[in-house]
Amino acid sequence: MNAPTAFPxxxxxxxxxxxxxxxxxxxxxxxxxxxxxxxxxxxxLGKDMLVVSREALRALSEAAFGDINHYLRPGHLKQLRAIxxxxxASDNDKFVAFDFLKNANIAAGGVLPMCQDTGTxxxxxxxxxxVLTDGDDExxxxxxxxxxxxxxxxxxxxxxxxxxxxxxxxxxxxPAQCEIYAEGDDAYKFMFMAKGGGSANKxxxxxxxxxxxxxxxxxAFLKEKVLTLGTAACPPYxxxxxxxxxxxxxxxxxxxxxxxxxxxALPTHGSADGNAFRDLEMEQEILKMTQSLxxxxxxxxxxxxxxxxxxxxxxxxxxxxxxxxxxxxADRQVLGKxxxxxxxxxxxxxxxxxxxxxxxxxxxxxxxxxxxNQPMKDILATLSKHPIKTRLxxxxxxxxxxxxxxxxxxxxxxxxxxxxxxxxxxxxYYAGPAKTPDGYASGAFGPTTAGRMDSFVDQFQxxxxxxxxxxxxxxxxxxxxxxKKHGGFYLGxxxxxxxxxxxxxxxxxxxxxxxxxxxxxxxxIEVEDFPAFIIIDDKGNDFFKELNxx
Length: 550
Fold this sequence. Notes:
Distance between the termini: 68 Å
Structural class: alpha/beta
Number of strands: 23
Radius of gyration: 25 Å
Oligomer: single chain
Shape: globular
Strand content: 25-35%
Strand order of the largest sheet: 1-16-15-9-4-8
Helix content: 25-40%
């Protein structure tokens, strides 16, 4: 054999100097103490060890997911108020921002969550080397999240695959996504996030090539990709862009953390050691670019984004992953920590009323009132008199149906059966409600992303249904063509204001069909002064096409 029988003497190498990939600065988060129970210090092998009970972990997680479905960070609320004070903001920017502030005040009452999509429970923990638990941390943290969803008026959005094509709602919003890392010394630190489907769906990975790494090419590339975000995830966004990464999955994980402002304390320059850093100059450049797009806060204007985070990572010489993602108007994340002094949670804003203007402003322009209880042909004739961008106030009956219900109705058509009359006689609202609190007509009940129903529209309109659709976000060309062909309309409602809609606009909710689908059942709702805009009309005009989103 030619192989050596022993390892040769190792070549001398310089001492190893470790550089953390994410060298974060000091934690300046304002915390509140939740409890001191379940935390103690014990001596083990001559060292002080922080011993954390299972119940302390569970209680922190439950408190976190309760808070982030009802309260926002002060910084986010200040950014909403800044839109109202900005003379360059469009009327529609201000209308949306004002609605979000009203929504925040309703949600802060602790009954209605700020958004009907109360999210996937995501938990990241960083466990110090001198922290002891019973080893069942993932289960304890997940149980706390589950308890928040069971005890509060939150929606169960998780579906379990029974087979490749059969699914069933888990009826408790589990499983949670829980990741625990070994990092630090004598503290256990956490980030809790409730990530809605709309914003999660606007996470994109692009496997670019190093040829993009020039200023002009990179900015042109990012402008094209930012436009693909559209408005379906409820802007104004906190936009995160990550350039580089030692792997595709690290690139996308960094996008998520950056969108939550978790990485704000990174250094602002790189080094030969390969640390991540923020590019503040590029952040401002991208922010100005988003303001120039004209997309605005859902219906045209300046405020497509509140802010931008751009993180640069090291990379393999043959790879250039680029990630994009957003945190939406339901900006739901909170930090937590457990130390020898107790269990702490980030202090969110419990008094968002301070950010409202003293006198309610007249925002959004002239409003056209639409009676939804008249025959469908008359509703269509009324809408046909008005151009796209017209602001509407809807009163009357709507039918609520989304993904699973649409699939059920398509099965009827494919069997040669007609659509039910209720689907022909009333507008269809794409939504799925959160739980209805005692004494309320409705739980949080905002619009879901319209684009998921695009493939149904032509078939349904040809059969007399979906003639007026209400939802959020831009739609495919096929929807515009179907509306022109069949005389239909798509009306955009404000995404991200579900508590406000439940409190003021939705007066009655009842199941019509498919109750086994849970929140995806078909519902009949009665609404009053429900806000919407004409987005696509019966002549083929599309508001979002003008913004290069159609």
